[in-house]
Amino acid sequence: MRSPLLRKEPWLEIYSEIIDVRSEGEYAEDRIPGAINLPVLNNKERAKIGTIYKQISPFEARKIGASLVAQNIAHHLSSHFADKKEDYCPLIYCWRGGQRSHSLALVLRQIGWQVAVLDGGYQTYRNYVCEQLETLPQQFNYNVLCGLTGTGKTQILQRMLQQGMQVLDLEKLAQHRGSLLGQAWENKLASQPSQKYFESLLLQQLQQCDRQKTIWIESESHKIGRIYLPQGLWEKMKQSPCIEIRLPLEERVTGLLQQYPHFIEHPDILKEKLQRLKPCYGKEKLQQWFEWCDRQQWRRLVEDLLRQHYDPAYQRSLNRLFQPAGQAIDLQDLEEQTINDTIAMLPK
To answer: Are the C-beta atoms of residues 197 and 29 closer than 8 Å to each other?
Structure first.
């Protein structure tokens, strides 16, 4: 039978699949990237058992819990596992590698499948993530792409990635574009991942990078939306060389209107977000922005937001946190050929 731990990081081995048997709430907060969720106790059942454990007795809790676990495992057997072949070989984990994971593993082993259980469960994995993120980001060299809001940094990084260059897209991992209006809209206002799951995704991506090649990264703040960057990565970013991208204001406005059409379609949401700037710019300025929204004077609004808020804030942050730009590249537009020409000018 397959050993539960064939190496220090068993989740990096090749299994038929990795199964997280914790509740859907635990799974949503964080999990091993790529793991599927087959709860042996769901959120409500887990809460119920916890209440019985405290208010009645541990024995009653275990008895009722065993019944619920058996029902859930039976459901998984008749659905998820119904078409698995003889060579099926999963890795299973729960919170501590205890009763929940071993309950499912016992049944699957009785069927004849080779099953591995993660010793220490999710906590073993989480400790590993924290340890790795303390040191791994420091083992890479980075080039930081900087530039005012709307200069096309994200588009350039995306094209770099398509061309085979090594890119770490923190905004994509964080599901946020790193500003007041930056919540990702592509997933229908899906919320950002939890801090823990962001770190899991970040570690996964770093482990896929070649340490002999430079990683290209954008000049983010240490906080993207409500997600904080690991300290080791943040310190290395601040020490890394910067390349500044510059673009005429009119082109920046055009590009931003193309990137954020949802605010034009939902001005009430835009006003709600702008409301947060009232302490900085006052009631009169806020009212002016609202009037431009109502009149659909979008170019005027975006240009004023750039001049009044985004550009000064970005410049202060850049001067305070990052190295002076060693190279500046002026773009006339964000057309495909312009971006390709820009990438050709960057250090390799």
So the answer is: yes
| Residue 16 DSSP SS3 | coil
CA distance 147 to 35: 37
Whether residue 293 lies in the annotated active site: no
Q: Is 175 left (phi over 0), alpha (psi -120 to 50) or beta?
A: left
C-beta atoms surrounding 74 within 10 Å: 11
In angstroms, rounded to a whole number, what is the distance separating the alpha carbons of residues 43 and 40? 10
- Beta strand residue intervals within the chain, DSSP E: 17-20, 36-37, 90-93, 116-117, 142-146, 167-168, 215-218, 223-224, 227-228, 242-246, 325-330
pTM for this entry: 0.90
- Read off the tokens for 239: 């020490």
208-255 per-position pLDDT tens digit: 999 999 999 999 999 998 999 999 999 999 999 999 999 999 999 999
pLDDT digits (tens, 9 = 90+) for 115-162: 999 999 999 999 999 999 999 999 999 999 999 999 999 999 999 999
Question: Which of the two residues, 184 and 151, has the higher pLDDT score?
Answer: 151
Do residues 153 and 218 touch, judged by C-beta distance below 8 A?
Answer: yes
> CATH for 10-130?
3.40.250.10
Indicate the CATH number of 140-345 among 2.60.40, 3.40.50, 3.10.450, 1.25.10: 3.40.50
Given the residues 89, 94, 130, 280, the one annotated as active site: 94
Which residues of the chain does CATH 3.40.50 include? 140-345
Q: Give dist(CA 73, CA 69) in Å, integer.
A: 6
The residue ranges of DSSP E strands in 209-281, in sequence order, are 215-218, 223-224, 227-228, 242-246
Q: Select from 116, 68, 69, 125 the least CA-distant residue to 96.
A: 125
